[in-house]
Amino acid sequence: MHHIAGRLIDGSLLVVRGLPRSGKTILSKAIADELGNSAFYFDGAAVNDANQKQEHALLRSEVERRLAEHRCAQLVFDSYGNAVRQSRGGVLHSQLYGQLVDGPGGRDIGALFTSRYADALDLRVSGSPLLGRADFIELPRLSEEDAAVLGLTVDQARSYYGDATSLAHAAFRSGALSGPDAVSDFVSANAPSYIRDLPSDAARVLLGGRSFSDADGAGRQALRGLGAEADGTYEVARAVTQSTLLTELRRRNPGWPKARADSVARFAELLDDVPNALWVDRYVYEKPDQLARFLKDVRSATDAPVRLLGKPVDDYANVRRDIGRSLEGIAGVDARVMAYSDVPRLHDRHLVSPSFDAGYILPTAGVILCMDDPGSAVVVRMSSITFNYEACWKRGNPLMPSVQ
Hints:
This protein is of the alpha/beta class. The protein has three domains: 2-137, Rossmann fold (3-Layer(aba) Sandwich); 144-252, no CATH class; 260-398, Endonuclease, Chain A (2-Layer Sandwich). It contains 18 helices and 14 strands. The strands form three sheets. A seven-stranded mixed beta sheet has the order 13-12-11-8-9-10-14, sandwiched between helices. β2 (39-43), α3 (52-70) and β3 (73-78) form a beta-alpha-beta unit. α1 (2-9) packs across α2 (24-35), α10 (200-206) crosses α11 (217-224) and α14 (260-273) packs across α15 (288-299). The protein is globular and about 70 Å long.
């Protein structure tokens, strides 16, 4: 905590993300208290459409007052994601950018922002994104001192409660000094919130569809709050395995079915949940006839339109002919190939709705079309979407006449 306060005094912009009830607010208030009178703690969770104009003005004036009085200021902005998703979120973003970056005192103002993983922080507004200039840091890891308070060794504490301190704090509050049972009840009670907020890679690891080492940074960080890593391996904490979290996660994110009829039904169900659907898979066009047969069966189950975006190929003219012939006449289907510049960024398989910031991570097209065994493949809801898929679609090359 001391090093975070020191960086804020130096004028750094920092971001801490975490699951619900993971200690973000406790950390924010502790840092604000340590910094003293030059720091302003702002509760973004209290901002709503009715009071946001007044709250934004308060934020500006309090930071400016501290800067004038102390020649430096620190903004501790808790629950930034809630405040910035209100109707005037773009105005707030511009205000903060002007004050913390472009303003005459910007170099003397440090800021810490906290948010949940599911919060979309990269607003689609003109100008440079504020948090693009920030460093993302982790919540404090469980230490020997934390374990000692619980009467445990650090290895025991990590086995019970994971690497992060939030579950250990829950154990301390509940008096569960000798085991994880009471904390399992805490995890069960918060399971719906955890699942809504889990980064997709974290969910895939917990479901057995991805290794911890292959998860992205946000996924690994979230997992450390639910388990511990050591010697290249990851183990879910006992307080989590004895809770309902994993069972509920599997119920909401089931494995992909093996039977063709079930695969068709599952895909049709996802389309109904994702308006304006865009199916992104590099290899979706490998078997045009099987793809067409699958989509025809899907059309019998739903009339939701779907756009396909696959990998560009060398033999573009012949592929366009083959795909066009295969998909021609299937209502509500449009198809394009990715622009070469987008291929490195579109390496995962997604079903997304760009206009609704919603979607899923899918198994491969081979699994969905029942050409490959699904094994441990699962479909996982994406907690938030900040990538501009619609722009990728517009850059793509059509394979067939656009859907009218």
